[in-house]
Amino acid sequence: MELIDIGLVLAGLALVFFGAALSVYATALLGLVIGAAGGYVVAPQLLTAFGVGGTIGLAAAVLVGGALGAALAYVALSFATAIPAFVVGAYIGLSVITPVFTEGGLIRYLVMVSAGIVGALLGVTLTKFALMFITAFIGSALASGSVAMADLTAARDGFSPDPILFDPLGTAPVLGVDVPLFGLLFALGVLSQIGLFKLGWVARLATVLPGIGRVFGGDEKA
């Protein structure tokens, strides 16, 4: 496993089990991951348009994308979950909803955008619960290896989201046994994050880490 994949797994585990509890830090990490991944995938098209190429240009696109994602997530905290919620909603629309009744065409992307808008609205109105879902979903995708660096590279080379789509109910080998790793991590993540709020650990974190609760407007004590 490459160092980047190890980093993605570690970031995924942090999001799975501590996502919503980390509030502003989680939104910044989500912005960093989504921005860097987006920069990596669209880099060839952007670099070609500006007449730039090579490894340095690719690295610059990743760094700029990650920095912009993290900065926007931190600055626009009142809508901090809207962008990742749109991404997750669109992803679910593309990978789960559309395969039920269509294999391609314009309708596929209309459903994707519609699901993304619904996700964004839920992210703004139900911030705490949406952030639990978003961080557990994205974190589980990374921690389980359902979305790895090789998948992002394939998406970049083909300029298509298909390589990063996966079956949420799919299995992966763990110690020689096929288990629904993504589903297990997602369920454990949501339950553990609910527990952090119910048991008062988020309020304790707020006394140690500045900014905890900014996303929820002080609702972290609920």
Walk me through what this model shows.
The protein has 222 residues and is an all-alpha fold. The protein has one domain (3-166, 176-221). 70% of the residues lie in helices and 3% in strands. It has nine helices and two strands, in the order αααααααββαα. The chain has helices spanning 3-18, 24-49, 54-75, 82-101, 106-125, 127-143, 149-158, 181-198, 201-206; strands spanning 172-174, 177-179. Strands 1-2 form a two-stranded antiparallel sheet. A hairpin with a 2-residue loop joins β1 (172-174) and β2 (177-179). The mean pLDDT is 82.
Helix-strand pattern: HHHHHHHEEHH
The radius of gyration is 18 Å
Number of helices, where a helix is a run of at least 4 consecutive DSSP H or I residues: 9
Strand content is under 5%
| Distance, first to last CA | 40 Å
The major sheet is characterized as: 2 strands, antiparallel
Mean pLDDT: 82
Topology, element by element:
Elements lengths: L2 H16 L5 H26 L4 H22 L6 H20 L4 H20 L1 H17 L5 H10 L13 E3 L2 E3 L1 H18 L2 H6 L16
Antiparallel strand pairs: 1-2
Helix pairs in contact: 1-2, 1-6, 1-8, 2-3, 2-7, 4-5, 5-6, 6-8
Give the gist of this structure:
The chain is mainly alpha-helical and 222 residues long. The protein has helices at 3-18, 24-49, 54-75, 82-101, 106-125, 127-143, 149-158, 181-198, 201-206, and strands at residues 172-174, 177-179. It has one domain (3-166, 176-221).
For this entry, give a set of tags:
222 residues; single chain; 9 helices; mainly alpha; two-stranded antiparallel ribbon; 3% strand
